[in-house]
Amino acid sequence: MAATLIAGSGSPLPVQQRPAGSTRTDLQRHDLNIPGHEVLQARVDFAPGASFPRHKHPGEEIIYVIGGTIEYEVAGKPVVVKAGDVLFVADGVIHSARNIGSEPAAELATYVLRKGEPLTTFTE
User: Fold this and answer.
1) Which of 19, 21, 9 lies closest to 45, judged by CA?
2) Domain extents for the chain?
3) Which of 11, 72, 79, 119 has a 20 to 30 A CA-CA distance from 53?
4) What is the pTM of this model?
C-alpha cells in the first residue's frame, strides 16, 4: 500500500498495516492551534464481514458512517451504526469495528490527536 499525498499539506503520511478487508484513505492532516495536537481525516472502508481489532488512539475519534452498517465495540459495549449515523470515541478508549452487513461499509473518521504518537495502538 502506498502513502497517500494529503491535500493542503503536500507531504506523505505513513501507512499502517491493516487487516484484510479494510482500507484507510487519508484525506487531510493539519496542525491545530492547540499546542501539540493535530487533526487527521480519513475514509475507512470495510468489505462485508471485515473487522478491525481492538485498539485505541491518542485522542478523540469522531465517526460519520457513509454507507453500510458497522458494529463497534466501545469500552466493551456493542454499538450498531448505519449510514448517516455518528459515533464519538473518547481519547484512549478501547474499541473495535466490524461490517455486519452483506454490502461494503464506509466511515469518515476524524481524529483529534496528540502529535508524535502512533495513530493506532492494538490491544488484547
Assistant:
1) 21
2) 24-111
3) 11
4) 0.84
**Spatial separation of the C-alpha atoms in residues 51 and 63, rounded to whole Å:** 16
Count how many residues are written for the chain: 124
Q: Which residue reads 478508549 in cell numbers?
A: 93
Please say whether the beta carbons of 113 and 37 come within 8 A. Answer: yes
Contact 63, 74 (CB under 8 A): no
Q: Note the pLDDT of residue 18.
A: 74
Which amino acid would we find at residue 103? E
Q: Give dist(CA 97, CA 113) in Å, integer.
A: 20
Q: Where does 24-111 sit in CATH, by number?
A: 2.60.120.10
Residues 80 and 100: their CA atoms lie apart, in Å, by: 9
